[in-house]
Amino acid sequence: MSYPPGCGLPETARHSTKFVLRRQLRPRSPHSCYNAIMGAGRKRILIVDDDADLRRGLVLLLGREYEILEAGDGPSCQRVLAETSPHILLLDVAMPGMTGIEVLRSARAIGVVIPVLMLTAQADLELARQALDLGANAYITKPFDFGDLRREVKRLLEGPSREEKDHDYRPWRVNP
Predict the structure, then answer these.
(1) β-strands 172-173, 67-71: how paired?
(2) What is the predicted pLDDT for the residue at 129?
(3) CA 120 to chain centre
(4) Which residues contact 99 (CB under 8 A, 6 or more apart)?
């Protein structure tokens, strides 16, 4: 694989497989070599969680298929939403300062209409109902199965499958 000239990399680094992985995990900017190499047309996921380890795990899980944006708190999420156009929002419910419910409420108030997948350690059905009433599309409790999360993200980005159209679909998962 060859990287475009003028991307700021020495010629030898432009042919490195390790560089692709590092760039995939931490793109510099929307105009970096990353987008030229990995494809600017990929769907963007904004992951908002105060747990950096969980964000890192989700980047590893979803980063091959999607462009990943990250925010560690509500105000950072609002800045990213104002500057970019993600296709889906993965949002933690319990964060210090500004909760995920407050972030969702403010995002909907300013007209953000992307799918929202709520992630939480709280198996509280009232909280799930509140999130769904505010416009969240799905609600998954931690710890979650990575395969289930990947399928849910794909479903929200691509629409329901034929099986889901034929059966009652529940937009929440409570894991034991």
Answers:
(1) unpaired
(2) 87
(3) 14
(4) 74, 93
81: which strand partners? none
Residue with tokens 């390790």: 18
**Contacts of residue 164, Cβ cutoff 8 Å, sequence gap at least 6:** 155
pLDDT at 163 over 70: no
Q: Cβ(81)–Cβ(58) under 8 Å?
A: no
Question: How many CB atoms lie under 10 A from the CB of residue 112?
Answer: 18
pLDDT by residue (tens digit) across 77-128? 999 999 999 999 999 999 988 999 999 999 999 999 999 999 988 888 888 8
Q: Which two tokens stand for residue 155?
A: 């479903």
Tokens 């462009």 label which residue?
Answer: 67
Phi and psi (nearest 5°) for 45? -115, 130
Give me the half-sphere count of Cα atoms (radius 13 Å) on the Cβ side of residue 31: 1
pLDDT of residue 126: 86
